[in-house]
Amino acid sequence: MDSFEINKIIAAILMVALLIIGIGKISDILFYVEKPKTPGYAVDAEQVVAEKANNSETVEEKIDIAALMSLGDLAVGEKVFKKCAACHSIVKGGKNNIGPALYNVVGRKIGVKNDYKYSKALSGYGKEWTFEELNGYLIKPAKWIKGTKMAFAGLRKEKDRASVILYLNQNSDNPLPLP
After folding, report:
1. What is the total count of domains within the chain?
2. Residue 142 domain-assigned?
3. pTM above 0.70, yes or no
4. Could you tell me the residue range of the domain that residue 107 belongs to?
5. Which pLDDT belongs to residue 46?
6. HEC states along 57-106?
């Protein structure tokens, strides 16, 4: 290979580099974008928080508990309750484990069982374990009652929740009538 061919190769590489740089400069001129003085977007945090609060109040869902309870099945409830049985007993006169005994729980005031130490969130909640409360709580306990010490992830499937609620209601001295 003689020196003339090496010069042609180097010249071709330099021409490609100049062409790329030139195209970049020309495109900057053709497609000019004015850059902002300060990068980013100004967000009014108070306004965002207020909008979220308004949206959460208006989006609050009402669940047709009668339709939900019609999905339930006692056999499925007994099977799904085995997840709960690691921490709760369901037999009459059963003792408290990690969680309180759940016999007679449906219709009982929340957080008042005398021989169990509830979290402040549950003991101060002030409601009863209705079908609606149990459904909401079983979806995700920590989200339904903030500050509860129950670390259960929740039951996503509606049929599972309805079945467990039916099972809990059945394990009572006086089961409540279904809605």
Report:
1. 1
2. yes
3. no
4. 64-170
5. 66
6. HHHCCCCCHHHHHHCCCHHHHHHHHHHHHHCCCCCCCCCCCCCCCCCCCC
